Structure formats: structure tokens, C-alpha cells
Amino acid sequence: MTFALVKHNNNSISAITSPGNLTQGKMTLLQTQTASSSASVSFTSNIDSTYTIYVFKIINMNPATDNHIFEFQANSSGGSGFNESVTTTSFRQYNTESGSGSYNYNVNDDLANGTDYIHLANGVGNGSDESLCGELFLFNPSSTNRQKNFIARFVYYEAGDGIMEYFTSGQFLTTTAIDEISFKMASGNIDSGTFKMYGIKGS
Known about the structure:
By secondary structure, the chain is mostly beta strands. The protein has no helices and 12 strands. The protein has strands spanning about 25-40, 40-45, 55-65, 70-75, 85-95, 100-105, 120-125, 130-140, 150-160, 160-170, 180-185, 190-200.
């Protein structure tokens, strides 16, 4: 087994003043958007071949309408509308304040070569003290010879007075580069929340 050696400018670790080049794997913040009664939050720039992995972090998102679906879709380069063909799978687990928990797969949250928005969280509560947090990873969106994989994990206060953890993964069925991503609620606006997009360089 061979290991790469990162060389520093001093022999003593305690005396290091600058590290070697560690660009691979570094997460770089590309854009931040703050929702305020927003119909959607879309990232329509900075998704290109510069990075092989894009990470979207959603922090304290609160919907205007109770008990609805938080979702996303993509747009390919040169396309119009967020309606790429996609196949997905998802599962969820939750526990209510009364201690009634469950773990299940719900076929109604999946898409099979569909063009609808993809479910990231189902039944999100809209109370003033309730919110959703999580992240979505999109892999190699600029590829022009492979389909595009993604995985997502979200946690939120569910409308039925419980905590929900929701997992989604899938693949956009296109070999055209994807350069836009949009988030929205299936019904009603996004009342508030912070949306961040990061890029990670591959090896």
C-alpha cells in the first residue's frame, strides 16, 4: 500500500506556519440564499465542471402551509423547466411525542422514470418553532456520458407532533449536463430558511 506524503515547511508540527496543498476534497461555499415567503429557491449558476460533487444544505426551513411535501428538481443545460426524468427510492423513520414510532418505505414517495418534483420530506410541520434541516449531495452533474446520482437526508418536525428522518436517493436519467437545481414546497410558499450550495473537488 502506498501513501502520499504532504510536506510542510517545518520539521516540527508545532512550528508549521502553512500546510501543503490540500485542495482535493475541500468544501467551498458557492452561494447562500435566504427564503422569505418564497415560492421556490433555485440555484441557476455556479453548477459546472469546476466541482464533481455539489452539496446543498438547508437550515431551519419553515413552510407556510402545514403538512406538505418539501421537494426538488433539476434542469439540464439548454433545457427549460425543472422536469428531468428521474428514478428515486426513499424511506423514513419517526417517533411521536407520545412514543409511537415507525420505520417504513412508502412507494407513493418514489418516482419511476418520472418528471415530477422529487420528495425530500413528507408532512413537514409549519409551527413557528418547527423546522427542517438536512443536505442533498449531487454527483458529477456536468458529466455528458453518465446519468447523475444524488442522495439526501433530512430531519424535521412532522405535522403529527413527532420527529421525522427522511432518506432519498435517485438518478437523473440524462447524459446532458445538469446546471440548475430548484427547491420548493408541493403546496404553499417557503416561509423562511437558509439554503447553501457548496462544491467539492474530486480526486
